[in-house]
Design brief:
Strand order of the largest sheet: 3-2-1-5-8
Order of helices and strands: HHHHEEEEEEEEEEHHHH
Number of helices: 8
Strand content: 15-25%
Number of strands: 10
Radius of gyration: 28 Å
Bound molecules: copper (II) ion
Oligomer: single chain
Helix content: 40-55%
Amino acid sequence: MGAKGSAARRRASVRIAGLGLGGAALLMLLSGCSIEGVGKAFGNFGWPSNGISLQAHKMYDLWIASVIAALVVGIFVWGLIFWCIIRYRKRGDELPVQTRFNMPMEVLYTVTPILIVAVLFYYTAIVQTDVDKLSKNPDQVVEVVAFKWQWQFNYRDGIGKDAGTVASTVGSADVIPLLVLPTGEKIRFEETSKDVIHSFWVPELLFKRDVFPGNVRNTFEVTLDKEGRYVGRCAELCGTYHAFMQFELVAVAPAKFDAFLAAKKGGATTQEAMAAIGFTGKDSYAVTTEPLNTRRQDSSWNQSGTAAAGK
Ligand SMILES: [Cu+2]
């Protein structure tokens, strides 16, 4: 290789570096330079939204930033691949220069992936620790009781299984249970199951945690920062009517929550307590989902038409 060859090679590597930087710059430009902006521009890269809790926002940022990092690496690698295809396409029968056992190259592509994984691991560990953090004195404690095939939410007066229940809501085949909670307060969930393993999942929390029977009492905390109504589901196949285990998280201002809980403590039903804080009529029931129809009809299972003949 003469001086001409190495100059060409240098020009090519400059071009590739430019391609990678250009891709990154384009992403930042599209985003207005914020992680959330990039996420929104690309449909949140798979999340339903950027979440409704402080914990969710951290997970969202980690996810979006990881995807951006992966895309930058991806664009760089795709650039290299296509450049190689074009630059080193077959021109004759002469054997090209062989570049095996190039020590600097070998070291580079051993060290680079390790560095990338280390950085991802570092940020994942930080976010995970934060999401799993429990405070000494949460503002609200909710015991989540799962059973085949519904949910019960117990508002508690303290931490642990020996604390008392001050009010509770239980779902039925006809009424979706509502989990009313305040924004801006530390809410601890304590999970327990009466039978098999279920999983408590509100997609908008960007989080789910399994609910175990027996002595396991899974706990986690969230601080909601967005009022609204969000559907919740069981995310662990728990039997025939697994799909019926739906609920709705109703995030309201603390004053409204206090009024709701006071009404419940006073003996009001969940729907009456909802009405007391302004959710009247249809709004006192779940609005994000509805009970599934359990009734079987001829049309839904009889394929041969014999049932009609028997009528
Ligand atoms: Cu379940």
